[in-house]
Amino acid sequence: MDFVLPDSFKKRTADALGEREAQALFEALAGQPVASVRANVMKRQVLKDGLEPVLWCEAGGYLAERPMFTMDPLFHAGCYYVQEASSMFLEQVFRQHVDSDSPLVLDLCAAPGGKSTHIASLLGGRGFLVSNEVIRSRVKILEENMAKWGCTNVAVTNGEPEDFSGLRGLFDVVVVDAPCSGEGMFRKDQQAIEEWSEDNVRLCAERQRRILADVYPVLKEGGLLIYSTCTYNEHENEENVRWIADSLGAEVLSIELESDWNVVDSGFGCHFYPHKAKGEGFFIAALRKSCEELPVRVKPVKRKECKEAVFVKDWLLSASDYDFQMQGDVVVAVPKDFADFVDKLRAEVSVLTAGVPLAQIKGKDMVPLPQLAFSCALNRDAFKCVSVDWEQAIAFLRRENMFFQEEPKGWLLLMFEGAPLGFVKNLGNRANNNYPAEWRIRMSEDKSRYVKILED
Ligand code: SAM
Fold this sequence. Notes:
This protein is of the alpha+beta class. It has helices at about 5-15, 20-30, 75, 90-95, 115-125, 135-150, 190-195, 200-215, 240-250, 310, 340-350, 370-375, 390-395; strands at about 35-40, 50-55, 60-65, 80, 105, 130, 155-160, 170-175, 220-230, 250-255, 265, 270, 280-290, 320-325, 330-335, 350-355, 355-360, 365-370, 385, 410-415, 420-425, 430-435. About 25% of the residues lie in helices and about 25% in strands.
């Protein structure tokens, strides 16, 4: 298909950037997108030596070409995340402007989870992240990606911005990576070009204001709002940032830049243009809330003791840091410091997961859950670990029948190159595959497409 940019997009971009810059941008948009990944530092993963680093993100790197990630078991194990490089700039805003040691963070528009997995890494086990997605069909992939990333101080929710109104004044950081007209995706996504129109830019800008106004009360006074889009136009970017400052009450913060990043500071936020910085189009702004906001009180709750916890406590490292709770027939471990907050969260919005789902009670059995296998808090010593080769790993992820006649009966934790993939129940003559049906690989195996991304 021919690459044709809408005329009015070209005209308005030339008006904003000048003819020469705009031409350079259009040429870059007609080129190939770059592939980049971010390693999961919480799982002590490091990108392979020799990958070109993403300058603004410590764990980020560019790949010379885009491999078939599906064929890499470590991709499924949450050892790295495939993320567009410009978006990784969130790290700079976080490092420069988050001042609490244990911040409460809301990522309001989170699916599929690029920024949420990144925030979870930046939190480094401190604080708590609420990773929210409003669209029900998109929250499943968010839940999967967050489970695989393995951080325990995370809740995944499915709510509208206004559903959080009962949590007024509680959050130290709110991230609004807003739905937008997607001009920054033109190089990657032909559909973004086809769907673009002047009207859509206007509608997006209005929707962004509604979202911002609805969620703003949850940010505490002095808290940090991070607003980002993947579009270039000033209606969705600069004008909205000015509107937040003037109408909602905030101070626009400056973000320090290195000159070799080639990021453009407009005075309201930072622009990534593909002809300048290596990545797709992106805009990000940081604002500090300046108006008063009285926080709601989170009452300490006397919770029922979870008797089932004794059977599964040892499955976690530092079990004493967690509050064990029953959610239906599942034993869940919630970080103790945020257990009251999680109760409050559950009262306000639909919570899909909070903390680590450890085990499902089935009759007399405690079935270890896939989320536990991926969790950074998993105590591997509590299980018989079995290393599998690439073929076995892919067979497991395809949810095929497995055989471990040489291994003891009972639960086995399968590991590929040191990373847990999940559990099987070894019955002797066969092993039941416990990998979730909805996460399974549907493609047939093709080792020729497998490329190693991480160091051994
Ligand atoms: N932050 C994500 C990441 O890094 O992977 C990408 C988010 S995407 C740019 C914007 C998200 O906003 C989408 O998941 C979309 O479903 C969600 N969204 C759409 N309409 C919304 C609304 N009215 N309120 C809140 N979120 C909305």
